[in-house]
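Q: Please design a sequence for this.
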């Protein structure tokens, strides 16, 4: 692609804004009449090599993976089969922001938006690491530490390979972890049956869980911002974002909720970002952070590799947040966990950089970069990818951020209680 068109293409995309939760369900590109799998594959591979900010990595051999996937792609009989190979290839990057749609019922749910279980692998055994509060998994009693023996009757370690189909035969530890996360959260159609072992007993039991897409949709029907008062004297305000960072009405809703907290003379604010898996936009994010500063502050650093690849000239810049009213100057705690994604992750690192807030939580969703979207005309597929690499202003990659008070799990403790709220109240002496 020529330099003029590539630069214009890169500038033309809105970064950091995530598409609606189910935007890929029915989306499709305008396609060329003739089907040629080689051209379709090459369009996909070149787009990643040109614009994906995370194509250069040391946790997988990208060239080997592309060679294997291309061999399979050339055997595709139609666009549907080619899309499936592109989709499965994207999964090998273990990046929830790298997605190929439109989706089919047999595809696995996209994490972390349509998921309710986080997992970890210890010595070839699968364990629940965290559970999304209020979800089917939570309501059915699944808790961190439970061992997953099988998923829909398939042993857990075998099930971890199923999302990749034939494109991956020898997964890295990271790919195996990601595949298990996908498998345990199920396909887009139907429920899941998990075989579990709880505690030190040898007995196992089965549990059937609702599809996590149902819970994801339910979250989207809640108030944009919940306000709750906790602590012994009920004077600590919890402002909880309900996956609403992509809705501009959240700006006014948060202003109003914070104003009510101030009227109630809240002595501290807990900003709960643990239910923001689908990302959002910078307007909403900056409006929230602006309430906790009194002067312009840098909150996030961007790097756009597409320009350096084409022109050999790097493009990097720092984004600022500006003060907004009403201002809260008391203690602030920011909670985050596995269901903190994309722009939610941006707010967490931004609050850490620009304010005196104390961050409490676990590793987040690790949705890499600011999202760009493309239609692939030769395959009819829709491609989402991270076109910008994002960093804390201190240079730490957003996905590598560690809380000031790291905890794991961050959403649900083994006894079902809320570990992050407990930690925040403990720091305040307000339990």
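A: Design:
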């Amino acid at each position: 692609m020529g330099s003029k068109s590539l630069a214009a293409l890169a500038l033309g995309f809105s970064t950091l804004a995530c598409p609606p939760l189910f935007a890929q369900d029915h989306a499709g590109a305008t396609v060329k009449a003739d089907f040629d799998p080689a051209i379709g594959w090459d369009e996909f591979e070149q787009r990643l090599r040109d614009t994906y900010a995370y194509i250069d990595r040391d946790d997988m051999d990208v060239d080997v993976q592309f060679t294997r996937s291309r061999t399979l792609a050339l055997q595709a009989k139609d666009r549907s089969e080619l899309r499936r190979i592109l989709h499965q290839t994207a999964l090998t990057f273990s990046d929830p922001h790298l997605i190929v749609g439109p989706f089919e019922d047999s595809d696995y749910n996209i994490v972390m938006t349509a998921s309710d279980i986080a997992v970890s692998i210890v010595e070839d055994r699968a364990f629940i690491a965290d559970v999304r509060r209020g979800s089917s998994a939570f309501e059915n009693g699944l808790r961190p530490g439970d061992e997953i023996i099988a998923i829909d009757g398939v042993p857990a370690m075998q099930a971890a390979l199923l999302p990749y189909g034939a494109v991956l035969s020898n997964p890295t530890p990271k790919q195996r972890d990601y595949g298990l996360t996908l498998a345990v959260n199920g396909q887009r159609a139907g429920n899941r049956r998990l075989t579990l072992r709880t505690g030190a007993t040898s007995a196992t039991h089965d549990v059937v869980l609702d599809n996590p897409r149902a819970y994801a949709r339910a979250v989207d029907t809640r108030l944009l911002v919940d306000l709750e008062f906790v602590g012994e004297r009920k004077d600590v305000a919890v402002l909880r974002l309900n996956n609403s960072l992509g809705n501009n009405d959240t700006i006014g809703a948060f202003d109003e909720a914070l104003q009510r907290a101030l009227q109630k003379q809240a002595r501290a604010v807990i900003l709960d970002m643990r239910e923001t898996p689908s990302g959002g936009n910078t307007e909403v994010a900056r409006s929230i952070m602006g309430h906790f500063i009194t002067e312009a502050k840098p909150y996030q650093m961007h790097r756009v590799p597409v320009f350096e690849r084409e022109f050999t000239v790097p493009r990097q810049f720092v984004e600022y947040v500006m003060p907004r009213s009403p201002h809260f100057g008391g203690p602030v705690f920011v909670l985050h966990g596995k269901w903190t994604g994309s722009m939610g992750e941006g707010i967490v690192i931004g609050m850490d950089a620009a304010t005196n807030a104390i961050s409490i939580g676990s590793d987040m969703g690790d949705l890499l970069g600011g999202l760009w979207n493309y239609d692939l005309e030769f395959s009819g597929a829709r491609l989402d990818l991270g076109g910008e690499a994002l960093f804390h202003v201190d240079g730490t990659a957003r996905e590598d951020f560690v809380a000031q008070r790291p905890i794991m799990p961050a959403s649900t403790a083994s006894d079902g209680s809320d570990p992050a709220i407990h930690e925040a109240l403990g720091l305040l002496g307000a339990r």
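Q: Thanks. Anything notable?
A: The radius of gyration is 22 Å. The longest strand covers residues 381-391.
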